[in-house]
Every structure is written in structure tokens, then in C-alpha cells.
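Before a colleague's protein record goes any further, I have to sign it off. What it holds is a sequence and that sequence's fold in C-alpha cell form. Would you go through it and say whether the fold makes sense for this chain? The record follows directly below this note.
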Amino acid sequence: MNSSAKFITIEGIEGAGKSTQLRLLAKALTANGEAVTVTREPGGTPFAEQIRDLVLAHTDGPVDPECELYLYLAARAEHVAHHILPRLKSGDWVICDRFTDATVAYQGNGRGLETAWVRHLAEHAGRIKPALTLLLDLPVETGLARMRERGAGNRLDLEHTAFHQEVRKGYLEAAEAEPERIARIDASTSLEQIHRQIVATVNQRLGAHLPAPLAPALEGDR
């Protein structure tokens, strides 16, 4: 599986602050004169967003884990082919809220499917490997408390605590297995401190020259 030097993914359990930190990193890159595309999984194209609505919707009963997995893989194949790869080919930095690591953590560890098999399918559907994955890590209890403050979540958000514990375990196992790609970021600290960690990591790992801290990027994101 090929990798791209300008492809960054952001991962983490519920309440880790991925969406906020993604916006801040995009602002930092844009302020540095870079073209940036921000996207998410599942989603990123009109058809993949329809799959997102389906897979995250509340249901009257449980969803078969393999059915759930294949829906995520279908959305990813569409997303990569029609959005991520074209933007990378055009020279953009692409920052994606979740990617293949999420599939392994959620559908592998969380749902109890065989993780090596899930990883193989996820990487096949993904077709490209991130140059850097920022894992925003924090205790499950902290993340769930933050999520409850935001109000009602989607179907996966409302899973039991043990499910989210397994998901975090999966993420940490991935970080241990691929330390050259996955950088663990302490997401239990303040928004500004997390942003500082991310900027420093992007500069060190990818040779970027982002200013740190980027104070203007924090305005309006508190």
C-alpha cells in the first residue's frame, strides 16, 4: 500500500477532540501557505455521506458486525477514489478525521472481529497509507464525559463503556506496532496544549515549518 507525504489522519475515541484539532491543524497549514483539504470518514463524497447516515443511524436492534464493517469499507473505497486521491494528486495536504485505524479499532477490537483480517480489508479499501496518524488519546471515562456534555450522539457513541475501552486498546496497540507512523498525543490536556503537541509533531515527522503556537487559529474554537 503506497503512502503520501501530505496525507494526515486524526484518530481517537469519542470525546478526544478530533474535529476541533483537525480544524486547527488545517488553519495552521493554510496560514503557512499550503493548500489543504479537510475530510472525514465515513463520508467525504455525497454517496459516502449517504452510507455514513445509514451506518451511524439508530436502529431498533443490533447490527451484524460484518455488515457494519462492509458498510465502512464501501464508504472508504468511494471516498479514496473520488476525493482523497484526486486532492493528493493535485498537491493538497489532506487531513482526514478517521481512516483505516478506526476500522480496526472499532470493528476489530470493539466488535470482536479478527483484527488481522479487518486490517487487511481496511487497507485494501483504503489503497493509500497516511504519512502521519495523530492519535488523540485520553481515558475513556474522560472522553465519554465530554461526549455527554455535547448531548445525544450517534449509534456508536452510545455503545457501552466496555466497547469504548476495547476501541482505545485497539488504538494503543496500533500505535505500539507502528510508532514511525502513529504519534500518540495526550488529549487530556487543554485545547492549546494539544494543538502545540500536534504542530510540533507535524514539524518533526513531516518536515513542515508551522509556527507554534499558532494563537490566531485558536480564536473561535474554544
